[in-house]
What we know:
Layout: H1 2-25, H2 30-58, H3 60-80, H4 83-99, H5 101-111, H6 116-144, H7 147-151, H8 153-166
Amino acid sequence: xxxxxxLRAWAIFGSVAFxxxxxxxxxxxxxxxxxxxxxxxxxxVVGQLVGGILSDRYGRKEYTLIGLVTAIPPFLVFLMTxxxxxxxxxxxxxxxLWSTFAVTVAMAHEIAPGNVGLVSGLMLGLAVGVGGMxxxxxxxxxxxxxxxxxxxxxxxxxxxxxxxxxxVPYPWKVFSRSRSPTLG
Length: 184
């Protein structure tokens, strides 16, 4: 779960780090580009609330996997288009990808309820820190090739997180008879 969260953090913080640059390369002034990325982050805050509600109802593991998979297409649309379509795709990407963040923290707490402090440190500290190193890798790839190629590490990181979250020993709510997860 921590490794998957590291990959997702790479995607989240890589997008925050490099989207203003690609937006300015598309002709948007820097202040507006940063405001647009802030809009994506605000959409992500709303996404976390929505994700939490939906994961309570349909299952945390289910929601996380669906969220990760469905975050990739809007990011690719963002990269391959321009104008309003691209900007709407960026906002949708932020909403969906960030919506999985709080859900996986809740999953981790439910897996190890006796170690909430340790789990919080792993999921919020270690994963975010390692994700930051991924941002450096994205920058290195962008410097060696192009920003567009570097940005392709973002959907790749998300795709690599999917099988790792799939392997997390957390119950599938969809397969349980009761509407609440049983961990034990």
